[in-house]
Amino acid sequence: MMQLLFNGLVSGMLVALPALALALTFSVLRFANFSIGAMLTVGAYLIYWCNTALGLSLPWAAVVGTALAALLAVAIDFLVYRPLRDRSTITLLVASMGVSFVLENAVSFLAGNTPVGYAVDVARPLRWAGLRVNHEQLLGAAMSLASLLLIGLIFGYTRLGRAMRAVADNPSLAATRGVSRQRVVSITWLLSGALAAIAGMLIGLDTTLDPQMGWNYVLPVFAAAILGGLTHPLAAIPGALVMGVFAELSTLVLPPHYRTLVAFAVLSLLLVVRPSGLLGSKWVQK
C-alpha cells in the first residue's frame, strides 16, 4: 500500500506540470488547450535531440530543449491563436486540436514511430523504509517540486503574477491600468511550453519516448486540472496529486492499463457534479 501511495504521489507530480500549464492558459485565454499532450511530446523530443544529436549532457539538453519548447509555444500562439483571439472558445478549442494533430505528426515524421530513450546511465533502484525508489522518481519529484514552487512564487508574489491575474479577471480593466495583455499572453505560453517540456522529459526518463506519449496523458491532465479548478491555476497541483494516488490505488482492483479509465471516470463525474472543480469558482464570461 505504501509503495502505491508513493508511486501515486510521484505520478501526480509529473501530471501536475502539464495540468498547471493547461490551467494557466485557460485562466488567461479562457479556452481548453487540447494540444497540451502534443506540447509535452514535442518538448520531450526536443530535449532528446539536444541530448543525442548535439551530444549535450541531459541537464544542458533539458535547458536548451525547454527553452526551444517555450519559444515554439509562443510561435504557435503568434501563428494560430492570436488571429483567432476574438473568436469563441469552441473555435480556439478546435484550433488546438489541429495544432495537436500537426505537432504529433511532425514528430512522427521526423523521429519515426520507434520508441527511444535518453542517453543516460541505468542505475539500480534504491531501498528506503521498505519502498523501492527509482532514481528517475527522485529526479522527477525534485524537478516537479522545484518547477511548481517557482510557478507558485511567480503567480503569487510578483508583478507578473498580479498582471496575469488581472488579465484573467478582466482584460479590459487590466488594459486601462497599463497591463499589456499580449505580453502577459506570451509569457503564459512561455511558461506553459516550458512546463510541458519538463514533464515530457521526466516521463521519458521514467518510460520511453514515442510520438503518442503525450496523448496518453491528455485525459489525466484534463481530469487533474478540472478536479482542482480550471479558474484557479495552482489548484491543478492538488488535483494532480489526488488523481495520481487514485490511479495507483485503482490497480488494487483493476489491471494497470485501466488507469486512464479511472481518469475518464473522475473527469465525467466532475463535469456532471462540480464542473468548476473542488477549489475553482464558477466561470463568468465577461
Molecular structure report:
- 70% of the residues lie in helices and 2% in strands.
- The protein has 286 residues and is mainly alpha-helical.
- The chain has a two-stranded antiparallel ribbon.
- α1 (2-29) packs antiparallel against α10 (236-249), α3 (58-81) crosses α8 (181-206) and α6 crosses α8.
- The longest helix is centred in the first third of the chain and has 28 residues, at 2-29.
**What is the percent of helical residues?**
over 70%
Number of helices: 11
Strand arrangement, largest sheet? 1-2
Which geometry do the CA atoms define? globular
Largest sheet: number of strands, sense, barrel closure: 2 strands, antiparallel
Strand tally is 2
Q: Mean pLDDT, as a whole number? A: 83
Radius of gyration: 18 Å
N-to-C CA distance = 47 Å
Low-pLDDT sequence parts? none
| Beta content | under 5%
Brief characterization of the structure:
The chain has 286 residues and is mainly α.
Q: Any descriptors?
A:
286 residues; mainly alpha; two-stranded antiparallel sheet; 2 strands; globular
How do the helices and strands line up, and which of them pair or pack?
Blueprint: H1 2-29, H2 36-52, H3 58-81, H4 89-111, E1 126-128, E2 131-133, H5 135-157, H6 159-169, H7 171-176, H8 181-206, H9 215-228, H10 236-249, H11 259-273
Antiparallel strand pairs: 1-2
